[in-house]
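Structure ticket #2291
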Amino acid sequence: MHVAMIGTGYVGLVSGACFADFGHIVTCIDKDAGKIERLKSGGIPIFEPGLENLVAQNVKAGRLFFATDAAEAVKGADAVFIAVGTPSRRGDGHADLSYVHAAAEEVAGLLDGFTVIVTKSTVPVGTGDEIEAIIKRVRPDADVAVVSNPEFLREGAAIEDFKRPDRVVVGTVDPRAQAVIRELYRPLYLNETPILFTSRRTSELIKYAANAFLAMKITFINEIADLCEAVDADVQQVARGIGLDNRIGNKFLHAGPGYGGSCFPKDTLALVRTARDAGSPVELIETTVKVNDARKKAMAAKIDKALDGDLKGKTIGVLGLTFKPNTDDMRDAPSLDIVPALQARGAKVQAFDPEGLHEARQLLRDVDFKDDPYGVAENADALVLITEWDQFRALDLDRIKLLMKRPLMIDLRNVYKPEDMRARGFAYASIGRATV
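Resolution: structure written out below.
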């Protein structure tokens, strides 16, 4: 089948490359000429494990193309995916749909024959109706079916998630559209992947409901971690104890400094606004947003406490800046709250991240960026682990200890075991576990 993918951001590029790997002919379209030229020359604008090779293989095979002009690709497409950004709108938290609306208007003028228009972007309930109205206004004669097909891609594992998903959700009752979508995802039938067909509005809400539930689960275990510290319990054992219950499950029960990234912060806010506008507020999610925002800001106080309440003139080494490992994404990362808060208390910050330094330099001021973890440890009064990259899990602790002014680690991801750190001669603080 022929696919046009509007947008070459995280979702569009991963989805386009994976559809091409399924055997379809895919053209990824973007207005950013520089990005398209970079993609044509083999460059990848985002960091995602395996994506560079996947793109290169499918370009070489003649299944994946890149363009700034949508006309040819849309005209010959069986399905046109809208995969543009929907950031939080300034001031009210609503999803900004301006890019979605612009894409729909452009596509409408290019349609030729029956075409399935698929919303891959994360959008509020009712957006599909708006897209359909735009297309009918621009092209009253258009033969289209507007479909919702939300993505459930985890940054750092997106290719695996696309090719071996838990489920594929498709919002349409149009039989012709259902047939096209089934053919697009036909390779997944080999893995017996469930494909759930729903109404369009239901599909749109499934995406927000899923992300809000996971954000709430993270926030829940973070609050339990605080309670563990207060009553001398171990949050990791609590998480394991409840996670073995099949009704709860063990995913997203890792205590830390709060969630961030491109999805959970904006999607929870958008769901809150949608629910308020519908007169059906989601108070659990509103509280989740509030508690998570406060938690990220509170981490500096935890670090301050580990240093006896005096950060002035201290050098703090920070390991990890992105919101999670295996991505270069800094959007709403806890580090963006923690680092400035440390600086406001008088600390000097030196930091390293394996993939996020380029973006971090644009977002963080007066930070001494280092080339590796050992540069971060040098002359540091404390080492703070914010993002659990694999290379931080096997540090040469003896070398770290010699480089630091004092052997103190504040581990905000519970990567290390308290007893092991004690045996190495470190003072050690973590999340929801005893301080040693």
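Closing remark: The chain has two domains: 2-198, 199-436.
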